[in-house]
Amino acid sequence: MGQGEEVNTRSPPEVEIQERGEIYFFYRPKVNKEEAHSSDDVQRMYIVLRPESGETSTQIKQKEEEEEEEEDDPPPTQGGYGSQVVNIEKNSLLRFIVMGQKKLPDPTKKSRPLWGFVELVTTKIEDVKDALKGGEYDTAKSGHRHKAAARPVGEGIYRILRHHSGKKMHTHLIYKLEFPSEEEKNEPQEALNIEKEASFLIQIKNPTQKGQFRGLNKKKRAVFPAHLQGQFGKLRYHAADPPDFLNYEGCEFLLISASDDIEEELGLELKSEVEETQDASCSDLLNTFGETSSTNALLKGIWHSDDIKVPMAMFGGSVNYASALYIAAATAKTLEKFEAELLDLVAAS
Question: Which residues of the chain have pLDDT under 50?
Answer without folding.
Answer: 67-79, 307-327, 329-330
